[in-house]
Amino acid sequence: MMNTLMKTPARFPKRARPAYVTDNEKWKAVLAGDRNADGQFYYAVRTTGVYCLPSCTARTALRENVIFFATPEDAERGGYRACKRCWPKGPKLADEHGVVVARACRVVESAEKQPTLEELARIAGMSPFHFHRVFKAITGLTPKEYAVAQRARRVREALPRRGTVTEAIYEAGFGSNGRFYATASETLGMTPAMFRRGGAGATIRFAVGECSLGKVLVAASEKGVCAISLGDDSAALVQDLRRRFSKANLVDGDAGFEHLVAKVVRVVEEPRIGLDLPLDVRGTAFQQRVWRALREIPAGSTASYTEIARRIGAPKAVRAVAGACAANALAVAIPCHRVVRNDGSLSGYRWGAERKRRLLLKEENGVGKDR
Questions:
Q1: What is the DSSP string of 83-103?
Q2: Cα 228 to the chain's mean position, in Å?
Q3: pTM, whole model, 2 decimals?
Q4: For position 198, what pLDDT does the model report?
Q5: pLDDT above 70 (res 132)
Q6: Degrees (nearest 5) of the Cα angle 271, 276, 281?
Q7: What is the C-alpha to C-alpha distance for residues 79 and 64, in angstroms, rounded to an integer?
Q8: With b meaning 16 or more CB within 10 Å and e meaning fewer, what string describes 211-226?
Q9: Which residues are catalytic?
Q10: Which of 331, 362, 79 is nearest to 227 (CA)?
């Protein structure tokens, strides 16, 4: 079993890569932590006696102490030993762990009954404690959270075709109705019966207001605010809302709803005051964790995607964190605009990079006016 689990792909898959010919080009790749350079050359540090991959995250050495080698064997013949952080000699432990976790995920996805932590750890050849840490580091979820997410997916697939909600719940592997209903609203965004009808019957109120960033659409369900969108065209914002809630009953907000819109507009203009309103946040377990982390970033501060991945205990899930930011439907309330690239530069933003820049300027200035 373990021979199958531990079989790893090639360390450096074939792909088009830049050429690193001169020492100057190689040094620039080291400074950039360029993963495309991994396997093309290696660098060693005279003062430590260690050689590394160009993408190694160890503290950057002084240029005068760095020497380059074509292969690990060349570096070791020169008297250098392999770095324990990036392990340039061959497949890293992280690669092997990735294969093990992928296999465990397939076991969870295909099992009729949710496997226990002990069962998954035994398949992986690890202790339960170690397997739990490895699984969470790679996927961003605990094995239990992943299993619950898979069962929720099965429920979503089964509800439209099963005779009753109860049949769909048991088909998905939940041991009792109560266990599923405890998290059904967060999982489905509505009651199971309503989901089974395609969302028909849900009522969502909405209105479009004006702010310094253009138009702002605010929508709310019975649970709370479920959408805050920014744009230039009111009709386009409403059309996007209709696509997202195609089976729901969308109604114009009344005079009382205008007060809610005004609160959102005020937060756009003065982000530091925060939005103290109930939210109807709909997403996967992983997205929910990312969004909670985003709400913990103070106004006037930023964090990188890498930092957010580290904060949620999934340092390898940087791309998944970026995906969760892109899926955020609650502008300002869930401040994905506070997430930037590792070098501090702005990255993409669902409602436009210029709006992201202006929101950050407002927070930096601490006032409701742009510079």
A1: -TTT-TTSS-HHHHHHHHHHH
A2: 20
A3: 0.54
A4: 47
A5: yes
A6: 100
A7: 18
A8: bebbbbbbbbbeeebb
A9: 52, 336
A10: 331
